[in-house]
Automatic annotation (TrEMBL):
Residues 554-563 have a biased composition (Basic and acidic residues). Residues 1-28 form the signal peptide. SUPFAM superfamilies: Amidase signature (AS) enzymes (SSF75304). Keywords: Signal. Residues 544-563 are annotated as: Disordered. This is Amidase. It comes from Hydrocarboniphaga daqingensis. Residues 60-528 form the Amidase domain. Pfam families: Amidase. InterPro entries: Amidase_dom, AS_sf.
C-alpha cells in the first residue's frame, strides 16, 4: 500500500461546486429556506447541506442505514447488501471533525459509498458472492478502495453480487430483488449495486463489468452506469472474472455523480500493467493531473449538438414498449442537435460478435480463470481459506450444495471447466494474438464506416426477467420475452475495451425502468460522458421506486448560510 494525495483536479471540482453555491445568482437563494431530501439526493445536495451545517456525514450514514433496515432487513428484503461496515458511523464522525477543522477534501468527503463484494477491503470480508469465501478478509484495500478513502468517502458496506461475477444470485445472501417489481431480478452481476442505488440505500456504488455487469443492473434498475475503457480503473485488488475484459465502473442516480466518482476511482496505478498503458494513451488525448482526469469538466448540456449517433436497429423489435421509449430518447437527442443514422449489422458481424462467435470469445477467455483465481487466493493470509479451485469445489460439494442457498450450476461449470483449460493452449494463444486484434479492427471499422461519434441502442430488448435461481423461482406470466438479440451481447465490445454508458430513458406499463445505451471508441470517455449528460438533462427520465417510499426524518429544512 502506498500513500495517496488527493488530486488537484478533485480539489478544483470541489472549488467549482463551492463557487456555484456562492455565485451572485445563488446568494439570494442562500439567504432563503432550503430543503434536503434524502430520496434522490445528489452529491451537490449533500455537500450544500454539509456546508450549511444542516447535516453531518454521521447523520447521513444513519439515514441510509435506516432505509436499509426498513427495506433490506424488512419489507421486501431486497438482498442488495451482503455486509455493512460496523464502523461506518465512527468513520463518518471522524470525517465530520476533519471537515470542521480543515474543510472538505473534495466532493466525496463524507459521502457513503457501497462496493461490490469482489472489491477488496482490508476491514471487511470480500466474498465474491461465494459462501466458500464469506469469511475472506483481504490483506489490504483494492486500489479503488484506497482512492475512495483518500477522497474522504465512507465505505458503507459491500453490495451483493452474482456469484463469481455471474447472474444476480449468490450462495451468501441469495437473490437480489428489483426495487421496482419484487418478482423480477436486477440483472447481474453488480446486482446489489444496482438495486441499492435505485432504492436510495447509498449515494454511490461501484460495480464491475466483464461483459455487461455494470450496465445490465443499471438498466434494469433505472440508474446510470458507466463502464470505461478496460484498464482506465485499476483492477488491482478486484477478484478476477476475466482480466482480458474486467473493469470496475461507477453507478449512481445521475451522470454528474457518476462523473464525480469516476474522477476519483480512475487513476494511474503501476500495480496494473493494462492501467498504465491506458493512462499513457489518455495522457496523449486529455489533460491528466496527478494521475487523474476530471470527468466533470465534460458535463456539457449542449454536448449533443453536432454529434452523429449510430442507431443499432438490430436491437429493436423485442418489446414495443422499449422500442417506443428508445424512439422518444432518440427524438430528444435530435432535438438537442444530434443527427442519427440507422445501423444494420451485417450477418457475419452478428454471427461473430452476437451469436456463436461471441460465445466462443467468452469460452476462450475463461481459459485464464484458474491461474488468475489461484493467484488471487494466494493473497489471503487465513490458512483456513481455500487456495485452489479444486479446494473450492470440494467445499461447494460438501457444504454449500446441501445448504438452503446452493450454488448455481453455471458457477460449478465455470470452476470445473477451468481445471481442464490453460492459457498455454494453442486456441487461447490464437485468441489473444489473432481474435482480439481482429475484433478491435472490426468494431472500430463500424464507427468509421458510418462516421459516428457513438453507437446508441436500448440496452435490453426486454424488461427485467422473473426470478429464477437454485433456491426458488417465480412464474410471472406478465413477462414479455424478447426473441431479438439482447444488446448486452454487444459485450464483445467490452473484450476490446470500448467504453459504454447507460442512462434512464423511462418506464414500461408495469412500472419497470429501462436505460438507453451509448458506446464510444476507446479513450473517448470525455465525449461519452458529455453525450450521456446532455441526454439526461434533456430527458430527466429517472424516478424513484414508489414501492420504497421515503421514511420519517429523510427531509431536513434549513437556512443556508450567506458566505
Amino acid at each position: 500500500m502506498h500513500a495517496h494525495t488527493f488530486p488537484s483536479a478533485m480539489t478544483s471540482l470541489a472549488l467549482a461546486v463551492a463557487l456555484t453555491l456562492s455565485s451572485p445568482a445563488s446568494r439570494a437563494a442562500q439567504a432563503a429556506e432550503a430543503r434536503f431530501v434524502l430520496e434522490e439526493a445528489t452529491i451537490a445536495d449533500i455537500q450544500a447541506a454539509f456546508a450549511a451545517e444542516a447535516l453531518t456525514s454521521e447523520q447521513l450514514v444513519t439515514l441510509y442505514l435506516q432505509r436499509i433496515k426498513a427495506y433490506e432487513d424488512g419489507g421486501p428484503k431486497l438482498n442488495a447488501i451482503l455486509t455493512l461496515n460496523p464502523k461506518a458511523r465512527e468513520q463518518a464522525r471522524a470525517l465530520d471533525r476533519e471537515r470542521k477543522a480543515k474543510g472538505p477534501r473534495g466532493p466525496l468527503h463524507g459521502v457513503p459509498v457501497l462496493l461490490k463484494d469482489n472489491i477488496d477491503t482490508a476491514d471487511l470480508p470480500t466474498s465474491n458472492g461465494s459462501a466458500v469465501l464469506k469469511a475472506a478478509v483481504p490483506p489490504d484495500d483494492a486500489a479503488i478502495t484506497r482512492e475512495l478513502r483518500a477522497a474522504g468517502a465512507v465505505i458503507l458496506g459491500k453490495a451483493a453480487m452474482g456469484e463469481f461475477a455471474g447472474g444476480s444470485y449468490n450462495s451468501v445472501g441469495g437473490q437480489s430483488i428489483n426495487p421496482y417489481h419484487f418478482k423480477r431480478h436486477t440483472g447481474g452481476s453488480s446486482s446489489g449495486s444496482g438495486a441499492a442505488i435505485a432504492a436510495n440505500f447509498a449515494m454511490l456504488a461501484v460495480g464491475t463489468d466483464t461483459s455487461t455487469s455494470v450496465r445490465g443492473p443499471a438498466a434494469y434498475s433505472g440508474i446510470v452506469g458507466f463502464r470505461p475503457t478496460t484498464g482506465l480503473i485499476s483492477r488491482d485488488g478486484i477478484a478476477p472474472k476475466n482480466l482480458n475484459f474486467d473493469s470496475a465502473g461507477p453507478m449512481a442516480r445521475t451522470v454528474t455523480d457518476v462523473a464525480a466518482m469516476l474522477s476519483v476511482i480512475a487513476a494511474r496505478d503501476s500495480a496494473d500493467p493494462t492501467n498504465v498503458q491506458v493512462w499513457d494513451e489518455i495522457a496523449k488525448r486529455h489533460p491528466v493531473t496527478q494521475g487523474h482526469l476530471d470527468f466533470t469538466a465534460y458535463l456539457d448540456a449542449g454536448a449533443l449538438k453536432g454529434k452523429k449517433l449510430g442507431v443499432v436497429r438490430d436491437f429493436f423489435g423485442g418489446d414495443p414498449e422499449i422500442d417506443a421509449l428508445a424512439e422518444q430518447a432518440l427524438a430528444a437527442m435530435r432535438a438537442q442537435g444530434a443527427t442519427t443514422v440507422d445501423i444494420q449489422l451485417d450477418p457475419a458481424f452478428v454471427q461473430r460478435y452476437l451469436g456463436d462467435g461471441n460465445r466462443d470469445i467468452r469460452r476462450l477467455s475463461d481459459h485464464r480463470f484458474k491461474a488468475d483465481w489461484e493467484r488471487y487466493l494466494a493473497t489471503f493470509k487465513d490458512p483456513n481459506l481455500p487456495k485452489t479451485v479444486t479446494e473450492m469445489l470440494t467445499i461447494y460439494d460438501t457444504t454449500v450444495m446441501p445448504s438452503p442457498l446452493p450454488v448455481e450450476d453455471s458457477v460449478l461449470r465455470l470452476l470445473k471447466t477451468s481445471l481442464t483449460t490453460s492459457t498455454d493452449a494453442p486456441e487461447y494463444q490464437a485468441f489473444i494474438t489473432k481474435t482480439l486484434p481482429e475484433a478491435t479492427r472490426d468494431k472500430l471499422a463500424l464507427f468509421d464506416r458510418y462516421g459516428v461519434d457513438a453507437l446508441v441502442f436500448p440496452y435490453f430488448s426486454a424488461f427485467a426477467p422473473p426470478i429464477k435461481n437454485p433456491a426458488y423461482s417465480i412464474d410471472d406470466k406478465t413477462y414479455v420475452e424478447s426473441k431479438r438479440p439482447q444488446p448486452a451481447t454487444l459485450a464483445g465490445y467490452s473484450s476490446v475495451g470500448f467504453p459504454s454508458a447507460v442512462v434512464p430513458m423511462g418506464f414500461g406499463s408495469q412500472g419497470l425502468p429501462m436505460d438507453i445505451g451509448f458506446m464510444a471508441r476507446p479513450y473517448d470517455e470525455p465525449k461519452l460522458m458529455g453525450i450521456a449528460y446532455a441526454y439526461e438533462q434533456a430527458s430527466h427520465a429517472r424516478k424513484p421506486s414508489p414501492l420504497l417510499p421515503p421514511l420519517k426524518g429523510e427531509t431536513i429544512d434549513y437556512k443556508t448560510r450567506p458566505r
